[in-house]
Amino acid sequence: MNLKACIFDLDGVIVDTAKYHFLAWKRLAGQLKIEFTEKDNERLKGVSRMASLNIILGIGNRHPDVRTKEKYAALKNEWYVDYISRMTPDEILPGSVKFINELKKAGIKVGLGSASRNTPLILERVGMEDLFDAVADGNIVHKAKPDPEVFLTAAKMLNVDPRYCIVFEDAVAGVEAALNAGMMCVGIGSEKILTKAHFVVSGLAKMNIEKLKEIEERIKS
Ligand code: BG6
Ligand code: MG
């Protein structure tokens, strides 16, 4: 296997926070009297806080000034932080820790690449603050997915060439970011949504080293 590092998205891949983002945005949309569905929510996955707000405002055809937008984003984050502050290790998605430990044992580096500025709080709440060899998150990276910056930063921190990295992503924008970084990408979720991923599995519980080798061979052939 040529693969040297696995880089994981956080929200929706390692932990089930996508539902909390949705609930908090839905609450804001409700206050603004904007209709916001789970289908609309797909477009927000992997996208930065302000870009997410812009998508919702676009749905409602609203054009508030910058200060008002900052107020809305802060309000959403307040509600979101309220949810995630109560998270426990039970909310780690099945198979994540087992697979990551298996990778580490096999000498494959593990990194995290997330747009979220709440990454440190989430990792601390679920007891994962020491699990990753490198964490690139929204606090150090500023270009939102599909820009490859977050994954390229993680690869640099891990000291691995992007060609030897494989990204695990649940968001359309995240899959594009991985491809834009010149990395291999496994989608987490549905093949119908993550059409550009090299391979799609329903969750990390489906992953192990053997499967990883098989996926790498398939991508390379
Ligand atoms: C991503 C989520 O991981 O982080 C997006 O998929 C979210 O939905 C983005 O908007 C930014 O998160 P935060 O926690 O900084 O608002
Ligand atoms: Mg995600």
Structure description:
It is a single chain. With 221 residues, the protein is of the alpha/beta class. The protein folds into two domains: 143 residues, HAD superfamily/HAD-like (Rossmann fold, 3-Layer(aba) Sandwich); 67 residues, DNA polymerase, domain 1 (Orthogonal Bundle), CATH 1.10.150.240. The protein has nine helices and six strands. Strands 3-2-1-4-5-6 form a six-stranded parallel β-sheet, sandwiched between helices. Helix 1 packs across helix 4 and helix 3 crosses helix 4. The radius of gyration is 17 Å and the shape is globular. The site of magnesium ion has 9 residues, from loops.
Discrete helix count: 9
Query: Which residues sit in consecutive blocks of at least 5 with pLDDT less than 50?
Result: none
CATH superfamily membership of the largest domain, which one? HAD superfamily/HAD-like
Percentage of residues assigned to helices: 40-55%
CATH class value of the largest domain: Alpha Beta
Let me know the average pLDDT: 96
Q: Would you tell me which CATH topology of the largest domain applies?
A: Rossmann fold
Short description:
The chain has two domains: 5-16 and 90-220, Rossmann fold; 18-84, DNA polymerase, domain 1 (Orthogonal Bundle), CATH 1.10.150.240. The chain contains nine helices and six strands. It has helices at 18-31, 38-42, 49-59, 66-84, 96-105, 119-125, 149-158, 172-180, 209-220; strands at residues 5-8, 109-113, 134-136, 165-169, 184-188, 199-201.
